[in-house]
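Quick question, first post here. What does this chain look like in 3D?
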Amino acid sequence: MSITERFAIAVAASAVDMSDPELLPVRLARAAAVVLPVDGAGISLFFSTDRRLPLGASDEVSAVAERLQFTVGEGPCLSAHVSGQSIVAEEADIEASWPAFHDALVTQTPVRGIISMPFQDELRGYGALDLYLVPPHDVRTVTLYDALTVTREIVSLFHRSARPAGGEDGPAWLGAPAAERRSLVWQAMGFLNAGLDITSEDALALLRSHAYGTGSDLDDLAARVLAREVPLEELAYDDRSA
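> Answer (accepted):
Ran it through. C-alpha cells below.
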C-alpha cells in the first residue's frame, strides 16, 4: 500500500471522532504522525514572517513546540518559511542555529529533532507541515519523499476544502481552536499599539521579550494582557530595562 493510500485511510479514521470542519487540520496532523515515523506533527499557515497561524497539531507536545518557536521568534520552521526550502534539523543543528529556541525546547519538551516541509503547489509560501521527533526516533528515520508526499496530500485537501461556498468568509478550518488562540496575539499587539503608542513590530518584540523572560508562551501572555492580568506598565518597564 502506498504512502498516499495509507494517509487517506488515516485521515478517514481520524474523522470518526473529529468530524467538525474546523478540526480538519488536527485530523491531517494526526494522520501525518500515524503514517510517518515521527512522534508528532503540526500544521501552520503564514501571513507574513511574524504572522504564523497554527491550525492543528497531532498532540500537545507538538503544539507546545510550535508555541515555543513562535514565542522566541526563531527556529527551523520559521527559517523554512523564509527560505522556502525543507529543513531537517537534529538537536545539534537546533542548538547551533537557534539557541534560544533550543533552550526552551529541551527544557519544556522531549523533542530533539524537527523537519519542516513548506507547502508547495497552490499554497506555496503560505504554510508548512512540521514533524517532531523524540529519541530513539531521529530525523534519519524519515524518508523525505514520504514526508513530501504527505505534505502534498495535505495541500490538496486544504485546497479542495477551501472552495467558496455561499457567502462564507473562508474555509471553516481557519477557525481551528489553535488559530483562534493565536489571534489573541494580534489583539494584544493592537492593545499595546494604542496603550503604549508603539508600532506593531515593537509590540510583538515587547510581548516576546516578556514571555521569554517569564517562562510563558506568547499565546498565554496575550490572553493575560487582554484580560488586564498583566498591566501595560509592567510591559513598558520591561522595555526600559532591555
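The mean pLDDT is 89.
The first strand starts at residue 40 and ends at 48.
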